[in-house]
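Milestone M4 deliverable, item 7.
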Amino acid sequence: MLHPTTSLLLLAALLSASPSSALPSKPSKSKSVGSATLHGRRTAGQKEAYKHANGTFDFTFVEAEVARLKSKYHRRGNTTAALHRIASTHAGGSKRGHTIDPLTDVLPDQEYYGSVSIGSPAQVLNVDFDTGSSDLWIPGPGSNCQSETYNPTASSTYQSTDYDFSIQYGSGSVSGAVATDTVSINGLAVKGQGFGVVSTCSADFQGDPGGGLLGLAFQNLADTGATPFLQRLASQGSLDAPLFGFYLARGKTSGSTLSIGALDRSHYTGSLLYTPVVRPGQSGYWQVQANWRVQLPNVNGKPVVKSGSSSFGAAIDTGTTLVYVPIGVAAAIYQAIPGASRYYTSNGDTYFTFACSTQGKFSVAFTFAGLTRSFAINPQDFNLGQVSRTRCMAGIIGNEFSDLAGNPLAIFGDEVRLAATFVQMDE
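Output delivered:
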């Protein structure tokens, strides 16, 4: 069996990271996160999802994402023992192997989706792959989702259950019934995989090119109660190696990939760094311990660096665009940046601005437990857009998210250049 308490998370290097110092070797039999230098960078002039075409800050986009996150990081699963018995009645699946699934980038760097096959014969459908949640759900027949739908009656391996599910994402929601069927990605298959067949989508999900969602976090976050697909693959011995990884080609419609069972070495060089995953069986997320540092212009030829007095937990979330930290952490970061100031607070979310003229004259980076290397946010990404002629919205937003145990939690989205996130699940 796969036990979350012995899982490993490997975090590949941020695209904007500075050259690394000596790399520590991988700890033996410990849960951790790692990093390496990636190929590829954002092309100049590409529009970010959080900016209007004229370069100003898009309040509507960011406030909608915050609303989704508030629900996402405060949900509780409706797990039932009977569902787990149903989900585990079909033993076995595909033979041992690995695969690379191509992903499509929607609205530059907002959502990355790929294909999954469900049923016998297989029905190929699109899903958004998300490390910040744990459910698999797909629009079903008669749904109002306005996306490709799964047809249970066309599958000889479909089984219904007596359970309904509903997931509220803040600005959107989905609901329907829980079922089981054979689910696979490029031949890596799980028989009797539990998932949600959606009958009702709120307007936010209607017409989404991603169609459904496949969560990659731990089971205690699953509203359907089903063991997540990749954990089933690992526990039944279907993978060459118990890991998966993302390469997110920023600002390009194509070129992003999800690798399962092996690392896609065509997208990075060097060795991976590792940092421990924090309480994976309790928090439910791929959570690491992090801290911040701000580097300012040199004084008398010497660098000026300020850093946090204590570390904080952070969830690595491919389903999120921006970076959110506890309000106290955000206030300390901006206190270290000359000219930065609080802009406004809305529904508990605190936004900060800085002088646009200082962009590139300072850098904000994060460090992770057990690593000597820091990972900087690209100055282009740190600037979320102008709010006035001289002021720009800063790229770290203060919020009070928490994990399932109620501990304060930062959310690291794609803005922090998690452009290739490798997660190893180890027995």
